[in-house]
Amino acid sequence: MASPPVFPAVAASSAPGPQYLKVKNHLREGIASGHWVPGDLLPSEAELSAQFGLSRMTVNRALRELHQEGLVERVQGVGSFVAQIHRISSTLTVRDVHDEIAERGHRHEARVVSLARIKADEAQAALFGLKAGAALFHSLIVHLENGVPIQVEDRLVNPESAPGYLDVDFTRTTPTHYLLEAAPLSEARYTIESLLPAEQEAKLLGISRRDPCLVLKRLTFSRGQPVTHVRLTHPGSRYLLQGRFET
């Protein structure tokens, strides 16, 4: 029979401490390293007792605690198995700011600062897999809730995905609403940071350059093609980002 695996945690567990931790750390390290994967049958209590020179009661405690922590599943009369790992994912829905404000019973207003065709610099072009100098649409819009600025929307759009973008009146609809219809969403990539606002952002939001903001950057795709990249800047004191978690 092959020698039982030895993991770094076993050697580390030689320090003074409860004896059952030798077994617990050994099994935990084996699971973490992938030696035992979800669904694998772990060594029996008898095998672990012989390997570590400990009583079955001590080994049982190690397995019991791993079970309580969700790492091990125990089946009466069969043995202990590595637990299946349930994925936990954060769900951030691409939502229209107008709808969010309306749901609160408040009034939405949009101020279009700029709406133009531009030549992409290297960084902008890279987002869309284009060459520097390629055409992009750019919009800068301030969204207000009951007259108070809550979001600066700085957006780039791929003209191939939404050729009519510059003709839309964004005081009557939102870029999000228009783009979800023009190029149905298939994927979105997010980053969320706490940052200080740029000078123009602070001015548009009516806040100080020292006021922290929640900045969400999102690149969205339709049928595998990048459609739009947006930077949404919100004053930290006026915005709450909500999502939900699923298991």
TrEMBL record:
Segments forming domain HTH gntR-type: 17-85
SMART domains: HTH_GNTR, UTRA
Keyword flag Transcription: yes
Pfam families: GntR, UTRA
Alphabetical list of InterPro entries matching this protein: Bact_HTH_transcr_reg, Chorismate_lyase_/UTRA_dom_sf, His_ut_repres, Tscrpt_reg_HTH_GntR, UTRA, WH-like_DNA-bd_sf, WH_DNA-bd_sf
Keywords tagged on the record: DNA-binding, Transcription, Transcription regulation
Stated name of the protein: Histidine utilization repressor
Keyword Protease listed: no
